[in-house]
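HUMAN: Would you supply a protein with fold tokens?

ASSISTANT:
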Amino acid sequence: MYKERAAVIGDKDIVLAFKAAGMDVFAAESAAEAEKILKTRAKDHCVIFITEDLASGMGDALEKYKRKAYPAVIPIPSSFGTTGFGMAGIKADVERAVGTDILFNKED
């Protein structure tokens, strides 16, 4: 059973900020380590934020959770800034849902 809790997986600097906000935090130094944490913590959290630098190396593991209602796995920028991975995922999901790029399609 999912608990109404949120967690953050990322580098030590970013997770400390979220710990101050009362979230469960898990430091990871590699995508493989983040994937292991995600697998073990997925049943206990309804939302799990993962820094983009780690999420971009997790491939199939993230796809598995996209097909499930819980937990929502959301890429966020790391303490080093954004890589664009999270926004690219949102763009792809919207394109798949509506059949076209309605977010960034700009007319020249």
